[in-house]
Amino acid sequence: MKLGMVGLGRMGGNMAERLRRGGHEVETYARTAPERTVDSLVELATKLKQPRVVWLMIPAGDPTEHAVKNILPLLEDGDTIVDGGNSNFRDSQRRAAVAKEKGVFFLDAGVSGGIWGLAEGYCVMVGGEEEAFGAVEPALATLAPEGGYAHVGPSGAGHFVKMVHNGIEYGLMQAYAEGFELMRAIDLFDIDLAQISALWQNGSVVRGWLLELLQRAFEADPGLEQIRGVVADSGEGRWTVHEAIDAAVPLPAISAALFARFASRQDESFAAKVNAALRNQFGGHAVESAATAEEAKAAE
Question: Are 54 and 44 in contact (CB under 8 A)?
Answer without folding.
Answer: yes
